[in-house]
Write a structure and sequence with these properties.
54% helix, globular, single chain, 5 helices, 114 residues, mainly alpha
Length: 114
């Protein structure tokens, strides 16, 4: 756990050891799913990123908490918006007739959070 704590201190993440450990585990799983062309839509994630404020149990094993974790890791909000948030919103809008937001775990107010 010392290595994780050192990484967090270097990058300025004010998180608990348990949160960091869960995020690293989730990052590994998310990376592997992406690298091996696994689908993320309607996917169940075996690890849940921990957050101090907790998560809605209904959504905890979906893509949504993974996205929140990534947003928290990228400390630059402008970069997050340009590189992820705007394109993600556009993608959801473009395919809205095919995508059910509940299968990604998106809450009603997800546009304000992601």
């Amino acid at each position: 756990m010392e290595r994780e704590r050192e990484i967090c201190l270097v990058f300025g993440f004010p998180r608990s050891d348990r949160e960091i450990e869960s995020w690293l585990r989730c990052l590994t799983i998310l990376r592997n799913k992406c690298a091996h062309y696994s689908r993320l839509y309607y996917s169940v994630f075996p690890s849940i990123p921990m957050f101090e404020e907790g998560l809605d149990r209904e959504r905890e094993r979906t893509l949504y908490p993974q996205l929140l974790m990534l947003k928290n890791l990228l400390l630059d909000d402008k970069l997050w918006n340009e590189m992820f948030s705007i394109p993600f919103h556009s993608l959801i809008e473009e395919y809205k007739e095919f995508i059910e937001e509940k299968h990604i775990g998106l809450p009603i107010d997800w546009r304000d959070r992601v």
